[in-house]
Amino acid sequence: MKMFIQIVLIATISVLVFIPIFRKLGVKYGIVDNPLKIEKDRNGNTRKKLHKSITPLTGGLALFVSFWIAAFFTIGINTQIIGIFLGSLFIVVIMGIDDKYDLRPGVKLLAQFIAAGIPILFGVQIRYISNPSTGIYFDIGLWGVLFSLIWCVAFMNAMNLIDGLDGLASGIAGIAGLAMFTVAYLSGFTIAALLAVALSATSFAFLKFNFYPASIFLGDSGAHFLGYMIAMISIWAGLKTTSSIILLIALVGFGIPIFDVIFSSVTRARKGKKIYEADLENIHYQLHQKKGWGQRRIAVVFYLITAVLCLIPILLLYL
To answer: How far apart are CA 218 and CA 204, in angstroms?
Structure first.
């Protein structure tokens, strides 16, 4: 238990220290979201910003640094940890460049697959799917590589899509991480539990600066980092026979982002838009603009839904 307390304290303190630093760096180097900047899709439709002031997009960089300081100091280094770290470093760097210069969708998708593939080279991939009720597990062979790639890319995109209101993505990531910690801890999988609780701690600490009204945003780098780590922690658990349990928790924890991906994609396709184009079709935007819900209200409601979704399989499995 001492290690868990230690990693939470280091992660939390690191976020509180590094966020002000990276907030200043974002302003200094122009890595910001400017509400006066007009964004248009390919059809010339404009997308109005929901915030009113220039806000740094460097929150994800601070989360990346804080998380890995806590992980390296507490857990140490092994082959799998290095693989996950290098993959996260790659996606944070590429998406950090995107926050500054707006990369093409194809370039970002390629970067996502590369980042998802790096840990596989270090042995981090889904190898078995287990039946929690019987304890029997099945070797899925090379299909595990494909499944791991798609799983990681899907989580990164889902998290990036839900990151549209203050505190929404980081809060959901924190709750999902806490649920994964609970399952990993009860299953005796210490390293996965440590990584999950560190991610949860960094996400919750970030809410001090990111909850409405936010003074700093995750940026694409931060949203991708959170989605990547949720996916990687669950894939890491795939090295054990408890894999299907933690995969299930990760999936239900991302229930809202995944549903939002499906909802907005179908809506965009129905309207003849590209599914990767930024617009206001997401559920949280619809609630904000058409229903008049405030950002705080939307975030809290989505937090509660995520918590309930995570709690149900935990209660069914362990009670």
So the answer is: 13
Region for 49 from its dihedrals, namely left if φ exceeds 0, alpha if ψ lies in -120 to 50, beta otherwise: beta
**Residue 161 neighbours by CB under 8 Å, 6+ apart:** 257, 260, 261, 264, 282
- Gap between the Cα atoms of 169 and 264, Å rounded: 16
3-state secondary structure the chain: CHHHHHHHHHHHHHHHHHHHHHHHHHHHCCCEECCCCCEECCCCCEECCCCCCCEECCHHHHHHHHHHHHHHHHCCCCHHHHHHHHHHHHHHHHHHHHHHHCCCHHHHHHHHHHHHHHHHHCCCCCCEEECCCCCCEEECCCHHHHHHHHHHHHHHHHHHHHCCCCCHHHHHHHHHHHHHHHHHHHCCCHHHHHHHHHHHHHHHHHHHHHCCCCCCCCHHHHHHHHHHHHHHHHHHHHHCCCHHHHHHHHHHHCHHHHHHHHHHHHHHHHCCCCCCCCCCCCHHHHHHHCCCCCHHHHHHHHHHHHHHHHHHHHHHHHC
| Burial bucket for residue 317 (CB in 10 Å: 0-12, 13-18, 19+) | middle
What is the pTM (predicted TM-score) of this model? 0.89
Q: Could you list the mean pLDDT of each consecutive 10-residue stretch along the chain, which spans 319 residues?
A: 95 98 96 74 53 88 98 95 98 97 94 97 82 63 88 93 90 95 89 96 97 95 97 80 69 80 68 57 69 84 92 81
Torsion angles phi and psi, residue 33, rounded to 5 = -105, 115
